[in-house]
Amino acid sequence: MADYPSQFDKDDLLKCARGELFGPGNAQLPEPPMLMMDRITDISGDGGAHGKGHVVAEFDITPDLWFFDCHFPGNPIMPGCLGLDGLWQLTGFNLGWRGWQGRGYALGVGEVKLTGMVRPDRKMLTYKIDFTKAIQTRRLTMGVADGIVEADGEVIYQVKDMKVALSES
């Protein structure tokens, strides 16, 4: 593992978005408004349900978030794809945190279940990601993980076999 802390605040995440955390050409988060978390509260390369790494992060929900005005007028709901993107963002972040080189790319997800919604009255999303595989070979750097998103403690999204790769090209 690289010598990075196991917790990151919003300033740290913004450094990652600017390419300052893991270095140019390596794993990078998007900038706001597409940055889908406010802090990472725990990260590892050997923890989680399978002992292959995990990430726990939080996103503060406020009624003035950009997506509530447009999705849908008069019936504001956070698009489910943004929660999925947050899971992908954190999976790629974990690969960069490990010190692995290359830019992150979402490759897919095996299964997605959306069982709840994020409305403006929610207060916080919690992302929980458990790696099932973390592979680094000469030709391939990839993480495979399962994840959940909780809204105020209620599980609302579940994914299986989410895949993110790092590529130096």
Describe the structure.
With 169 residues, the chain is an alpha+beta fold. It has a single domain, classed as Roll (Thiol Ester Dehydrase, Chain A), CATH 3.10.129.10. 18% of the residues lie in helices and 36% in strands. It contains three helices and seven strands. Strands 1, 2, 3, 4, 5, 6 and 7 form a seven-stranded antiparallel beta sheet that branches. Strand 6 and strand 7 (154-167) form a beta hairpin. It is globular and about 50 Å long. The two termini are 23 Å apart. The model has no long low-confidence stretch (mean pLDDT 96). It is found in: Cytoplasm. This is 3-hydroxyacyl-[acyl-carrier-protein] dehydratase FabA.
Record the SSE blueprint:
Layout: H1 10-17, E1 39-44, E2 54-60, H2 66-70, H3 80-97, E3 103-108, E4 111-114, E5 124-136, E6 141-151, E7 154-167
Antiparallel strand pairs: 1-2, 2-5, 3-7, 4-7, 5-6, 6-7
Secondary-structure-based class equals: alpha+beta
Low-confidence stretches: none
CATH architecture: Roll
Radius of gyration: 15 Å
Shape verdict: globular
Strand content: 35-45%
Structure summary, number of beta strands: 7
Total of domains? 1
User: Mean pLDDT, nearest integer?
Assistant: 96
Q: How many individual helices?
A: 3
At CATH level 3, the topology is: Thiol Ester Dehydrase, Chain A
CATH class: Alpha Beta
Helix content: 10-25%
Biggest β-sheet, characterized? 7 strands, antiparallel
> Could you state the CATH homologous superfamily?
Hotdog Thioesterase
